[in-house]
Amino acid sequence: xxxxxxxxxxxxxxxxxxxxxxxxxxxxxxxxxxxxxxxxxxxxxxxxxxxxxxxxxxxxxxxxxxxxxxxxxxxxxxxxxxxxxxxxxxxxxxxxxxxxxxxxxxxxxxxxxxxxxxxxxxxxxxxxxxxxxxxxxxxxxxxxxxxxxxxxxxxxxxxxxxxxxxxxxxxxxxxxxxxxxxxxxxxxxxxxxxxxxxxxxxxxxxxxxxxxxxxxxxxxxxxxxxxxxxxxxxxxxxxxxxxxxxxxxxxxxxxxxxxxxxxxxxxxxxxxxxxxxxxxxxxxxxxxxxxxxxxxxxxxxxxxxxxxxxxxxxxxxxxxxxxxxxxxxxxxxxxxxxxxxxxxxxxxxxxxxxxxxxxxxxxxxxxxxxxxxxxxxxxxxxxxxxxxxxxxxxxxxxxxxxxxxxxxxxxxxxxxxxxxxxxxxxxxxxxxxxxxxxxxxxxxxxxxxxxxxxxxxxxxxxxxxxxxxxxxxxxxxxxxxxxxxxxxxxxxxxxxxxxxxxxxxxxxxxxxxxxxxxxxxxxxxxxxxxxxxxxxxxxxxxxxxxxxxxxxxxxxxxxxxxxxxxxxxxxxxxxxxxxxxxxxxxxxxxxxxxxxxxxxxxxxxxxxxxxxxxxxxx
Length: 618
Known about the structure:
alpha/beta
Protein backbone atom coordinates (compact mmCIF):
# COMPACT_ATOMS: atom_id res chain seq x y z
CA UNK A 1 0.00 0.00 0.00
CA UNK A 2 1.03 3.65 -0.50
CA UNK A 3 0.86 6.26 2.28
CA UNK A 4 -1.26 9.19 1.11
CA UNK A 5 -1.30 11.31 4.27
CA UNK A 6 0.23 14.78 4.02
CA UNK A 7 2.57 14.20 6.99
CA UNK A 8 2.95 10.47 6.46
CA UNK A 9 1.98 7.79 8.95
CA UNK A 10 2.30 10.10 11.97
CA UNK A 11 0.74 9.61 15.39
CA UNK A 12 -2.96 10.06 14.57
CA UNK A 13 -3.25 7.78 11.50
CA UNK A 14 -0.79 5.39 13.13
CA UNK A 15 -3.06 5.20 16.17
CA UNK A 16 -6.02 4.27 13.97
CA UNK A 17 -3.97 1.55 12.30
CA UNK A 18 -2.76 0.18 15.64
CA UNK A 19 -6.27 0.17 17.07
CA UNK A 20 -7.51 -1.73 14.04
CA UNK A 21 -4.68 -4.30 14.13
CA UNK A 22 -5.16 -5.01 17.83
CA UNK A 23 -8.78 -5.93 17.18
CA UNK A 24 -7.73 -9.08 15.29
CA UNK A 25 -6.20 -12.34 16.40
CA UNK A 26 -3.21 -11.84 14.13
CA UNK A 27 0.39 -10.68 14.14
CA UNK A 28 0.84 -7.84 11.64
CA UNK A 29 4.08 -6.22 10.51
CA UNK A 30 4.94 -3.19 8.37
CA UNK A 31 8.00 -2.66 6.19
CA UNK A 32 8.79 0.63 4.44
CA UNK A 33 9.99 -0.43 0.99
CA UNK A 34 11.32 3.06 0.20
CA UNK A 35 13.62 3.30 3.24
CA UNK A 36 14.19 -0.37 4.00
CA UNK A 37 13.06 0.11 7.60
CA UNK A 38 11.16 -2.71 9.25
CA UNK A 39 9.49 -5.01 9.66
CA UNK A 40 7.92 -3.48 12.79
CA UNK A 41 5.01 -4.57 14.96
CA UNK A 42 1.88 -2.89 13.54
CA UNK A 43 0.16 -3.34 16.91
CA UNK A 44 2.56 -0.93 18.63
CA UNK A 45 2.07 2.80 18.13
CA UNK A 46 5.66 3.57 19.04
CA UNK A 47 6.92 1.18 16.36
CA UNK A 48 4.50 2.34 13.64
CA UNK A 49 4.97 6.07 14.27
CA UNK A 50 8.77 5.90 14.42
CA UNK A 51 8.86 3.84 11.24
CA UNK A 52 8.56 7.39 9.84
CA UNK A 53 6.71 6.34 6.68
CA UNK A 54 6.22 9.52 4.65
CA UNK A 55 3.62 10.48 2.08
CA UNK A 56 4.21 8.47 -1.07
CA UNK A 57 6.15 5.68 0.66
CA UNK A 58 5.23 2.12 -0.22
CA UNK A 59 4.52 -0.20 2.71
CA UNK A 60 4.53 -3.98 2.71
CA UNK A 61 2.04 -5.46 5.17
CA UNK A 62 2.65 -8.94 6.52
CA UNK A 63 0.19 -10.92 8.65
CA UNK A 64 0.01 -14.31 10.31
CA UNK A 65 -2.41 -15.97 12.70
CA UNK A 66 -6.05 -17.12 12.71
CA UNK A 67 -7.44 -13.78 11.47
CA UNK A 68 -4.58 -12.75 9.18
CA UNK A 69 -6.75 -12.51 6.06
CA UNK A 70 -9.39 -10.44 7.83
CA UNK A 71 -6.73 -8.11 9.24
CA UNK A 72 -5.16 -7.54 5.83
CA UNK A 73 -8.54 -6.76 4.25
CA UNK A 74 -9.37 -4.27 7.01
CA UNK A 75 -5.98 -2.58 6.71
CA UNK A 76 -6.40 -2.27 2.95
CA UNK A 77 -9.77 -0.58 3.50
CA UNK A 78 -8.32 1.79 6.12
CA UNK A 79 -5.45 2.73 3.81
CA UNK A 80 -7.91 3.46 1.01
CA UNK A 81 -9.62 5.89 3.41
CA UNK A 82 -6.28 7.65 4.04
CA UNK A 83 -6.17 6.01 7.50
CA UNK A 84 -9.07 8.25 8.49
CA UNK A 85 -6.73 11.24 8.42
CA UNK A 86 -9.07 13.55 6.53
CA UNK A 87 -9.01 17.28 7.21
CA UNK A 88 -11.73 18.39 9.61
CA UNK A 89 -13.68 21.58 9.43
CA UNK A 90 -12.03 24.14 11.64
CA UNK A 91 -14.09 25.31 14.55
CA UNK A 92 -14.50 28.97 15.27
CA UNK A 93 -12.22 30.32 17.98
CA UNK A 94 -13.65 29.74 21.44
CA UNK A 95 -15.35 32.71 23.10
CA UNK A 96 -12.74 35.08 24.44
CA UNK A 97 -10.05 34.04 21.99
CA UNK A 98 -8.97 37.36 20.55
CA UNK A 99 -7.00 36.00 17.61
CA UNK A 100 -4.46 38.79 18.21
CA UNK A 101 -0.68 38.47 18.13
CA UNK A 102 0.00 40.55 21.25
CA UNK A 103 -0.76 39.90 24.94
CA UNK A 104 0.09 41.01 28.49
CA UNK A 105 -0.44 39.47 31.93
CA UNK A 106 1.20 37.86 34.95
CA UNK A 107 3.39 34.88 34.13
CA UNK A 108 2.04 31.47 35.13
CA UNK A 109 4.78 28.84 34.92
CA UNK A 110 3.89 25.28 34.00
CA UNK A 111 5.23 22.22 32.27
CA UNK A 112 8.29 21.61 34.42
CA UNK A 113 9.36 18.01 34.93
CA UNK A 114 7.27 16.03 37.42
CA UNK A 115 9.22 15.75 40.68
CA UNK A 116 9.87 12.10 41.54
CA UNK A 117 12.14 12.78 44.53
CA UNK A 118 9.39 12.25 47.12
CA UNK A 119 8.01 9.09 45.56
CA UNK A 120 8.08 6.04 47.82
CA UNK A 121 7.97 2.67 46.09
CA UNK A 122 5.55 0.03 47.35
CA UNK A 123 5.19 -3.72 47.11
CA UNK A 124 2.60 -3.27 44.34
CA UNK A 125 4.27 -1.05 41.75
CA UNK A 126 2.60 -2.92 38.87
CA UNK A 127 -0.80 -2.28 40.42
CA UNK A 128 0.04 1.40 40.87
CA UNK A 129 0.98 1.58 37.21
CA UNK A 130 -2.29 -0.03 36.14
CA UNK A 131 -4.29 2.42 38.28
CA UNK A 132 -2.40 5.37 36.80
CA UNK A 133 -2.93 4.11 33.26
CA UNK A 134 -6.68 3.74 33.84
CA UNK A 135 -6.96 7.25 35.29
CA UNK A 136 -4.90 8.79 32.49
CA UNK A 137 -6.97 6.91 29.93
CA UNK A 138 -10.19 8.22 31.46
CA UNK A 139 -8.86 11.80 31.25
CA UNK A 140 -7.88 11.37 27.61
CA UNK A 141 -11.23 9.86 26.64
CA UNK A 142 -12.99 12.91 28.10
CA UNK A 143 -10.71 15.16 26.04
CA UNK A 144 -11.21 13.05 22.90
CA UNK A 145 -14.98 12.95 23.18
CA UNK A 146 -15.22 16.66 23.93
CA UNK A 147 -13.24 17.83 20.89
CA UNK A 148 -14.71 17.20 17.46
CA UNK A 149 -11.85 19.08 15.81
CA UNK A 150 -8.89 17.70 17.77
CA UNK A 151 -10.19 14.36 19.00
CA UNK A 152 -7.70 12.51 16.82
CA UNK A 153 -4.81 13.97 18.78
CA UNK A 154 -6.13 12.55 22.04
CA UNK A 155 -6.93 9.24 20.37
CA UNK A 156 -3.24 9.05 19.52
CA UNK A 157 -2.35 9.90 23.13
CA UNK A 158 -4.62 7.07 24.27
CA UNK A 159 -2.80 4.69 21.95
CA UNK A 160 0.53 5.80 23.44
CA UNK A 161 -0.74 5.13 26.97
CA UNK A 162 -1.64 1.59 25.96
CA UNK A 163 1.31 0.88 23.65
CA UNK A 164 1.98 -2.81 24.19
CA UNK A 165 5.69 -2.74 23.33
CA UNK A 166 6.41 0.10 25.73
CA UNK A 167 4.26 -1.44 28.45
CA UNK A 168 6.21 -4.68 28.13
CA UNK A 169 9.43 -2.72 28.68
CA UNK A 170 8.01 -0.76 31.60
CA UNK A 171 6.57 -3.82 33.34
CA UNK A 172 9.80 -5.74 32.86
CA UNK A 173 11.76 -2.90 34.45
CA UNK A 174 9.31 -2.72 37.38
CA UNK A 175 9.50 -6.48 37.88
CA UNK A 176 13.29 -6.11 38.03
CA UNK A 177 12.97 -3.61 40.89
CA UNK A 178 12.67 -0.19 39.22
CA UNK A 179 9.96 2.06 40.74
CA UNK A 180 7.01 2.58 38.42
CA UNK A 181 7.58 6.33 37.77
CA UNK A 182 11.24 5.82 36.92
CA UNK A 183 10.49 2.89 34.61
CA UNK A 184 7.72 4.83 32.86
CA UNK A 185 9.82 7.96 32.44
CA UNK A 186 12.81 6.06 31.07
CA UNK A 187 10.74 4.28 28.41
CA UNK A 188 8.95 7.41 27.24
CA UNK A 189 12.08 9.56 27.30
CA UNK A 190 13.69 7.02 25.00
CA UNK A 191 10.70 7.14 22.64
CA UNK A 192 10.79 10.95 22.58
CA UNK A 193 14.49 10.80 21.72
CA UNK A 194 13.69 8.44 18.85
CA UNK A 195 11.15 10.90 17.44
CA UNK A 196 13.59 13.80 17.76
CA UNK A 197 16.13 11.89 15.67
CA UNK A 198 13.75 11.47 12.71
CA UNK A 199 14.55 13.42 9.54
CA UNK A 200 11.04 14.88 9.11
CA UNK A 201 10.43 18.16 10.98
CA UNK A 202 6.73 17.42 11.55
CA UNK A 203 7.52 14.01 13.01
CA UNK A 204 10.26 15.45 15.23
CA UNK A 205 7.69 17.69 16.89
CA UNK A 206 5.63 14.61 17.80
CA UNK A 207 8.14 14.12 20.62
CA UNK A 208 6.05 16.77 22.38
CA UNK A 209 3.08 14.38 22.35
CA UNK A 210 5.21 11.62 23.85
CA UNK A 211 6.35 13.86 26.69
CA UNK A 212 2.75 15.01 27.27
CA UNK A 213 1.66 11.39 27.70
CA UNK A 214 4.71 10.68 29.87
CA UNK A 215 3.86 13.53 32.24
CA UNK A 216 0.13 12.75 32.38
CA UNK A 217 0.84 9.23 33.70
CA UNK A 218 3.63 10.48 35.99
CA UNK A 219 1.20 12.97 37.56
CA UNK A 220 -1.18 10.10 38.25
CA UNK A 221 1.59 8.00 39.76
CA UNK A 222 2.83 10.79 42.01
CA UNK A 223 -0.47 12.50 42.79
CA UNK A 224 0.74 15.76 41.23
CA UNK A 225 -1.87 18.22 39.99
CA UNK A 226 -1.64 19.98 36.65
CA UNK A 227 -1.28 23.75 36.64
CA UNK A 228 -4.59 25.57 36.94
CA UNK A 229 -5.80 27.78 34.12
CA UNK A 230 -4.29 31.25 34.57
CA UNK A 231 -6.74 34.06 35.24
CA UNK A 232 -5.91 36.93 32.90
CA UNK A 233 -2.36 35.61 32.78
CA UNK A 234 0.20 34.35 30.29
CA UNK A 235 1.05 30.67 30.50
CA UNK A 236 4.80 30.13 30.11
CA UNK A 237 5.70 26.54 29.18
CA UNK A 238 8.79 24.71 27.88
CA UNK A 239 6.57 23.24 25.15
CA UNK A 240 2.81 23.22 24.66
CA UNK A 241 0.93 19.93 24.72
CA UNK A 242 -2.40 19.57 22.97
CA UNK A 243 -4.35 18.74 26.12
CA UNK A 244 -3.29 21.97 27.79
CA UNK A 245 -4.15 24.00 24.70
CA UNK A 246 -7.54 22.32 24.34
CA UNK A 247 -8.61 22.71 27.98
CA UNK A 248 -7.46 26.27 28.67
CA UNK A 249 -10.34 28.68 29.21
CA UNK A 250 -9.85 31.12 26.37
CA UNK A 251 -11.86 33.72 28.28
CA UNK A 252 -9.36 33.63 31.15
CA UNK A 253 -5.94 33.15 29.57
CA UNK A 254 -4.28 36.22 28.10
CA UNK A 255 -1.81 34.25 26.01
CA UNK A 256 0.75 31.47 25.85
CA UNK A 257 4.53 31.84 25.61
CA UNK A 258 6.37 28.68 24.51
CA UNK A 259 10.10 28.37 25.09
CA UNK A 260 10.61 25.86 22.27
CA UNK A 261 10.64 26.99 18.65
CA UNK A 262 8.41 25.40 16.04
CA UNK A 263 4.92 26.04 14.71
CA UNK A 264 3.61 22.55 13.87
CA UNK A 265 3.40 21.06 17.35
CA UNK A 266 -0.12 19.84 18.16
CA UNK A 267 -0.42 22.20 21.11
CA UNK A 268 0.46 25.24 18.98
CA UNK A 269 -2.02 24.20 16.29
CA UNK A 270 -4.83 23.73 18.83
CA UNK A 271 -4.15 27.04 20.62
CA UNK A 272 -4.15 29.03 17.39
CA UNK A 273 -7.34 27.35 16.22
CA UNK A 274 -8.96 28.58 19.45
CA UNK A 275 -7.83 32.15 18.88
CA UNK A 276 -5.46 32.22 21.88
CA UNK A 277 -2.56 34.71 21.45
CA UNK A 278 0.68 32.76 21.27
CA UNK A 279 4.39 33.16 20.72
CA UNK A 280 6.96 30.37 20.29
CA UNK A 281 10.72 30.30 20.59
CA UNK A 282 11.21 32.63 23.57
CA UNK A 283 14.16 30.49 24.72
CA UNK A 284 15.62 30.10 28.19
CA UNK A 285 14.94 33.63 29.43
CA UNK A 286 14.33 33.62 33.20
CA UNK A 287 10.68 34.36 33.96
CA UNK A 288 9.77 34.79 37.67
CA UNK A 289 6.29 33.47 38.47
CA UNK A 290 3.74 36.23 38.82
CA UNK A 291 5.86 38.84 37.06
CA UNK A 292 4.04 40.82 34.38
CA UNK A 293 5.18 39.76 30.93
CA UNK A 294 4.13 40.75 27.43
CA UNK A 295 4.78 39.52 23.92
CA UNK A 296 4.26 40.71 20.39
CA UNK A 297 4.38 37.77 18.00
CA UNK A 298 4.40 40.15 15.06
CA UNK A 299 7.79 41.54 16.05
CA UNK A 300 8.98 38.42 17.88
CA UNK A 301 9.46 40.32 21.16
CA UNK A 302 8.98 38.94 24.67
CA UNK A 303 9.37 41.34 27.60
CA UNK A 304 9.54 40.96 31.37
CA UNK A 305 8.06 43.85 33.38
CA UNK A 306 7.08 45.82 30.25
CA UNK A 307 5.56 49.27 30.12
CA UNK A 308 1.95 48.14 30.62
CA UNK A 309 0.45 51.32 29.23
CA UNK A 310 2.39 50.90 25.99
CA UNK A 311 1.42 47.24 25.62
CA UNK A 312 -2.28 47.85 26.29
CA UNK A 313 -2.22 50.67 23.79
CA UNK A 314 -0.72 48.25 21.27
CA UNK A 315 -3.49 45.72 21.97
CA UNK A 316 -6.18 48.36 21.47
CA UNK A 317 -4.46 49.46 18.29
CA UNK A 318 -4.35 45.90 16.90
CA UNK A 319 -8.03 45.33 17.68
CA UNK A 320 -8.98 48.51 15.85
CA UNK A 321 -6.55 47.75 13.05
CA UNK A 322 -8.14 44.37 12.38
CA UNK A 323 -11.66 45.78 12.46
CA UNK A 324 -10.86 48.65 10.07
CA UNK A 325 -8.90 46.38 7.74
CA UNK A 326 -11.87 44.09 7.33
CA UNK A 327 -14.22 47.00 6.72
CA UNK A 328 -11.96 48.38 3.97
CA UNK A 329 -10.73 45.05 2.56
CA UNK A 330 -12.20 45.57 -0.91
CA UNK A 331 -10.46 48.91 -1.43
CA UNK A 332 -7.26 48.88 -3.53
CA UNK A 333 -3.89 48.99 -1.79
CA UNK A 334 -2.80 52.41 -3.05
CA UNK A 335 -0.04 53.99 -1.02
CA UNK A 336 0.00 57.63 0.06
CA UNK A 337 2.47 58.42 -2.69
CA UNK A 338 0.14 56.97 -5.31
CA UNK A 339 1.55 53.51 -6.02
CA UNK A 340 -0.94 50.64 -6.22
CA UNK A 341 0.21 47.21 -5.13
CA UNK A 342 -1.85 44.14 -5.99
CA UNK A 343 -2.45 42.02 -2.88
CA UNK A 344 -3.53 38.50 -3.68
CA UNK A 345 -4.15 35.33 -1.69
CA UNK A 346 -2.20 32.08 -1.49
CA UNK A 347 -4.52 29.14 -2.15
CA UNK A 348 -3.97 25.53 -1.11
CA UNK A 349 -7.61 24.41 -1.11
CA UNK A 350 -10.68 25.92 -2.77
CA UNK A 351 -11.95 27.08 0.63
CA UNK A 352 -8.95 29.43 0.90
CA UNK A 353 -10.32 31.31 -2.10
CA UNK A 354 -13.87 31.25 -0.75
CA UNK A 355 -12.77 32.70 2.60
CA UNK A 356 -10.45 35.39 1.19
CA UNK A 357 -11.51 38.97 1.93
CA UNK A 358 -10.28 41.71 -0.39
CA UNK A 359 -7.89 39.61 -2.47
CA UNK A 360 -7.06 40.90 -5.96
CA UNK A 361 -6.85 37.30 -7.17
CA UNK A 362 -4.50 34.48 -6.27
CA UNK A 363 -0.77 34.90 -6.62
CA UNK A 364 -0.11 31.28 -5.76
CA UNK A 365 -2.27 28.21 -6.29
CA UNK A 366 -0.38 25.35 -4.64
CA UNK A 367 -1.36 22.44 -6.86
CA UNK A 368 0.61 19.92 -4.82
CA UNK A 369 -1.58 20.87 -1.82
CA UNK A 370 -4.78 21.14 -3.83
CA UNK A 371 -4.41 17.52 -4.92
CA UNK A 372 -2.16 16.35 -2.08
CA UNK A 373 -4.70 13.91 -0.65
CA UNK A 374 -4.84 11.94 -3.90
CA UNK A 375 -3.20 8.55 -4.23
CA UNK A 376 -3.70 8.63 -8.00
CA UNK A 377 -2.92 11.56 -10.26
CA UNK A 378 -5.88 13.85 -11.00
CA UNK A 379 -7.11 13.85 -14.59
CA UNK A 380 -6.99 16.94 -16.77
CA UNK A 381 -10.75 17.39 -16.28
CA UNK A 382 -10.45 17.15 -12.50
CA UNK A 383 -7.72 19.78 -12.45
CA UNK A 384 -9.72 22.11 -14.67
CA UNK A 385 -12.72 21.75 -12.36
CA UNK A 386 -10.64 22.71 -9.31
CA UNK A 387 -9.02 25.67 -11.08
CA UNK A 388 -12.44 26.90 -12.22
CA UNK A 389 -13.77 26.68 -8.66
CA UNK A 390 -10.90 28.83 -7.37
CA UNK A 391 -11.40 31.39 -10.12
CA UNK A 392 -15.16 31.56 -9.44
CA UNK A 393 -14.58 32.03 -5.70
CA UNK A 394 -12.31 34.99 -6.48
CA UNK A 395 -14.75 36.61 -8.90
CA UNK A 396 -12.73 35.52 -11.94
CA UNK A 397 -9.83 37.72 -10.95
CA UNK A 398 -6.42 36.49 -12.17
CA UNK A 399 -5.07 33.31 -10.59
CA UNK A 400 -1.44 32.20 -10.74
CA UNK A 401 -1.14 28.43 -10.88
CA UNK A 402 2.18 26.97 -9.78
CA UNK A 403 2.98 23.67 -11.43
CA UNK A 404 3.66 20.64 -9.24
CA UNK A 405 6.11 21.69 -6.52
CA UNK A 406 7.06 18.25 -5.33
CA UNK A 407 10.10 17.09 -3.39
CA UNK A 408 11.87 18.12 -0.22
CA UNK A 409 9.14 18.34 2.42
CA UNK A 410 6.33 18.08 -0.16
CA UNK A 411 5.93 14.54 -1.45
CA UNK A 412 3.05 13.46 -3.66
CA UNK A 413 1.54 10.05 -3.08
CA UNK A 414 0.99 9.51 -6.80
CA UNK A 415 4.56 10.52 -7.65
CA UNK A 416 6.88 8.39 -5.50
CA UNK A 417 10.49 9.57 -5.50
CA UNK A 418 13.72 7.82 -4.68
CA UNK A 419 15.12 8.52 -1.22
CA UNK A 420 17.76 11.25 -1.33
CA UNK A 421 20.47 12.05 1.20
CA UNK A 422 19.48 15.73 1.11
CA UNK A 423 16.09 16.12 -0.58
CA UNK A 424 16.08 19.93 -0.23
CA UNK A 425 19.12 19.99 -2.49
CA UNK A 426 17.85 17.25 -4.76
CA UNK A 427 15.06 16.77 -7.28
CA UNK A 428 12.49 19.39 -6.33
CA UNK A 429 9.93 21.30 -8.35
CA UNK A 430 10.63 21.50 -12.05
CA UNK A 431 13.73 19.34 -11.68
CA UNK A 432 11.56 16.27 -11.06
CA UNK A 433 9.79 16.54 -14.40
CA UNK A 434 12.81 16.74 -16.64
CA UNK A 435 12.95 12.95 -16.34
CA UNK A 436 9.21 12.38 -15.82
CA UNK A 437 7.30 14.90 -17.94
CA UNK A 438 3.94 13.13 -18.30
CA UNK A 439 2.27 14.56 -15.17
CA UNK A 440 3.45 18.06 -16.01
CA UNK A 441 2.07 17.81 -19.54
CA UNK A 442 -1.39 16.93 -18.20
CA UNK A 443 -1.25 19.81 -15.77
CA UNK A 444 -0.20 22.29 -18.43
CA UNK A 445 -3.10 21.13 -20.60
CA UNK A 446 -5.48 21.77 -17.69
CA UNK A 447 -3.97 25.23 -17.19
CA UNK A 448 -4.34 26.09 -20.89
CA UNK A 449 -7.97 24.99 -20.88
CA UNK A 450 -8.73 27.05 -17.78
CA UNK A 451 -6.96 30.07 -19.26
CA UNK A 452 -9.35 29.99 -22.21
CA UNK A 453 -12.18 30.83 -19.81
CA UNK A 454 -10.67 33.07 -17.09
CA UNK A 455 -7.43 35.03 -16.50
CA UNK A 456 -4.69 32.56 -15.59
CA UNK A 457 -0.94 32.85 -15.12
CA UNK A 458 1.36 29.86 -14.82
CA UNK A 459 4.69 29.65 -13.01
CA UNK A 460 7.32 26.97 -12.67
CA UNK A 461 8.96 26.27 -9.28
CA UNK A 462 12.57 25.59 -8.30
CA UNK A 463 14.18 26.99 -11.42
CA UNK A 464 17.95 27.50 -11.46
CA UNK A 465 19.15 27.69 -15.07
CA UNK A 466 18.15 29.22 -18.39
CA UNK A 467 18.08 25.73 -19.86
CA UNK A 468 15.33 24.80 -17.39
CA UNK A 469 13.30 27.85 -18.41
CA UNK A 470 13.66 26.94 -22.08
CA UNK A 471 12.60 23.37 -21.38
CA UNK A 472 9.53 24.55 -19.43
CA UNK A 473 8.46 26.95 -22.18
CA UNK A 474 8.85 24.20 -24.75
CA UNK A 475 6.69 21.87 -22.61
CA UNK A 476 4.03 24.59 -22.34
CA UNK A 477 3.85 25.22 -26.06
CA UNK A 478 1.91 28.16 -27.59
CA UNK A 479 0.91 30.63 -24.88
CA UNK A 480 -2.23 32.10 -26.52
CA UNK A 481 -2.21 35.03 -24.10
CA UNK A 482 -1.25 32.94 -21.05
CA UNK A 483 1.23 34.85 -18.85
CA UNK A 484 4.23 32.77 -17.82
CA UNK A 485 6.68 33.14 -14.96
CA UNK A 486 9.05 31.29 -12.65
CA UNK A 487 9.63 31.09 -8.93
CA UNK A 488 12.84 32.68 -7.70
CA UNK A 489 13.79 30.53 -4.72
CA UNK A 490 17.45 29.76 -5.37
CA UNK A 491 20.20 32.37 -4.92
CA UNK A 492 21.62 31.41 -8.31
CA UNK A 493 18.28 32.23 -9.95
CA UNK A 494 18.11 35.57 -8.14
CA UNK A 495 21.61 36.54 -9.23
CA UNK A 496 21.03 35.75 -12.93
CA UNK A 497 17.36 36.67 -13.07
CA UNK A 498 17.89 38.92 -16.12
CA UNK A 499 18.95 35.91 -18.17
CA UNK A 500 16.21 33.64 -16.83
CA UNK A 501 13.38 36.17 -17.30
CA UNK A 502 14.25 37.16 -20.88
CA UNK A 503 11.23 35.29 -22.34
CA UNK A 504 8.93 35.56 -19.32
CA UNK A 505 6.12 37.86 -18.23
CA UNK A 506 6.87 37.87 -14.49
CA UNK A 507 8.87 36.28 -11.68
CA UNK A 508 7.61 35.48 -8.20
CA UNK A 509 10.01 35.37 -5.28
CA UNK A 510 9.48 32.51 -2.84
CA UNK A 511 11.03 34.05 0.26
CA UNK A 512 10.73 30.91 2.40
CA UNK A 513 13.10 28.83 0.32
CA UNK A 514 15.21 31.81 -0.77
CA UNK A 515 15.83 32.56 2.90
CA UNK A 516 16.57 28.94 3.73
CA UNK A 517 19.05 28.53 0.89
CA UNK A 518 20.69 31.92 1.44
CA UNK A 519 21.26 31.41 5.17
CA UNK A 520 21.85 27.63 4.98
CA UNK A 521 19.42 27.24 7.88
CA UNK A 522 16.38 24.96 8.17
CA UNK A 523 13.67 27.11 9.75
CA UNK A 524 12.02 24.00 11.24
CA UNK A 525 15.22 23.20 13.16
CA UNK A 526 15.03 24.98 16.52
CA UNK A 527 18.82 25.14 16.77
CA UNK A 528 19.19 27.30 13.65
CA UNK A 529 15.67 28.64 13.03
CA UNK A 530 16.59 32.21 14.13
CA UNK A 531 19.09 32.35 11.26
CA UNK A 532 16.35 31.69 8.69
CA UNK A 533 14.90 35.18 8.88
CA UNK A 534 13.34 36.61 5.74
CA UNK A 535 14.39 40.13 6.79
CA UNK A 536 18.07 39.18 6.80
CA UNK A 537 19.80 41.91 4.75
CA UNK A 538 21.39 39.26 2.52
CA UNK A 539 17.93 38.04 1.51
CA UNK A 540 16.71 41.59 0.99
CA UNK A 541 19.74 42.35 -1.19
CA UNK A 542 18.82 39.41 -3.43
CA UNK A 543 15.23 40.65 -3.66
CA UNK A 544 16.51 44.13 -4.56
CA UNK A 545 18.75 42.60 -7.22
CA UNK A 546 15.80 40.71 -8.72
CA UNK A 547 13.64 43.84 -8.87
CA UNK A 548 16.41 45.88 -10.51
CA UNK A 549 17.44 43.26 -13.06
CA UNK A 550 14.43 41.10 -13.92
CA UNK A 551 13.02 43.42 -16.57
CA UNK A 552 9.55 42.01 -15.87
CA UNK A 553 6.89 42.24 -13.16
CA UNK A 554 8.16 41.03 -9.77
CA UNK A 555 5.88 39.40 -7.21
CA UNK A 556 6.49 37.88 -3.77
CA UNK A 557 4.46 34.92 -2.53
CA UNK A 558 6.45 33.73 0.48
CA UNK A 559 5.87 34.43 4.18
CA UNK A 560 7.29 37.95 3.94
CA UNK A 561 4.32 38.99 1.80
CA UNK A 562 1.98 38.11 4.70
CA UNK A 563 3.82 40.40 7.12
CA UNK A 564 2.27 43.90 6.87
CA UNK A 565 5.49 45.59 7.97
CA UNK A 566 7.63 43.62 5.52
CA UNK A 567 5.06 44.19 2.77
CA UNK A 568 5.72 47.93 2.88
CA UNK A 569 9.47 47.32 2.54
CA UNK A 570 8.94 44.95 -0.38
CA UNK A 571 6.77 47.53 -2.14
CA UNK A 572 9.41 50.20 -1.48
CA UNK A 573 12.00 47.93 -3.11
CA UNK A 574 9.83 47.82 -6.23
CA UNK A 575 7.76 44.65 -5.82
CA UNK A 576 4.35 45.31 -7.41
CA UNK A 577 2.44 42.17 -6.40
CA UNK A 578 2.19 40.44 -3.03
CA UNK A 579 0.44 37.16 -2.35
CA UNK A 580 -0.39 36.55 1.32
CA UNK A 581 -2.24 34.01 3.42
CA UNK A 582 -5.97 34.77 3.50
CA UNK A 583 -6.39 36.28 7.00
CA UNK A 584 -3.50 38.69 6.39
CA UNK A 585 -4.72 40.11 3.07
CA UNK A 586 -6.87 42.89 4.62
CA UNK A 587 -4.09 43.80 7.08
CA UNK A 588 -1.42 43.96 4.36
CA UNK A 589 -3.65 46.16 2.19
CA UNK A 590 -4.43 48.44 5.12
CA UNK A 591 -0.75 48.91 5.99
CA UNK A 592 0.15 49.68 2.39
CA UNK A 593 -2.59 52.33 2.19
CA UNK A 594 -1.02 54.03 5.21
CA UNK A 595 2.51 54.00 3.76
CA UNK A 596 4.52 56.57 1.85
CA UNK A 597 7.01 54.36 0.04
CA UNK A 598 9.26 57.30 -0.70
CA UNK A 599 9.90 57.65 3.02
CA UNK A 600 11.26 54.11 3.40
CA UNK A 601 15.07 54.25 3.66
CA UNK A 602 15.77 51.19 1.53
CA UNK A 603 19.49 51.98 1.34
CA UNK A 604 19.81 51.79 5.13
CA UNK A 605 17.79 48.58 5.23
CA UNK A 606 19.97 46.88 2.62
CA UNK A 607 23.12 47.96 4.49
CA UNK A 608 21.81 46.84 7.89
CA UNK A 609 23.82 44.55 10.14
CA UNK A 610 21.10 41.93 10.64
CA UNK A 611 17.37 41.28 10.59
CA UNK A 612 16.87 42.84 14.02
CA UNK A 613 18.38 46.09 12.81
CA UNK A 614 16.11 45.96 9.74
CA UNK A 615 13.07 45.69 12.02
CA UNK A 616 14.33 48.62 14.03
CA UNK A 617 14.67 50.72 10.89
CA UNK A 618 11.18 49.80 9.75
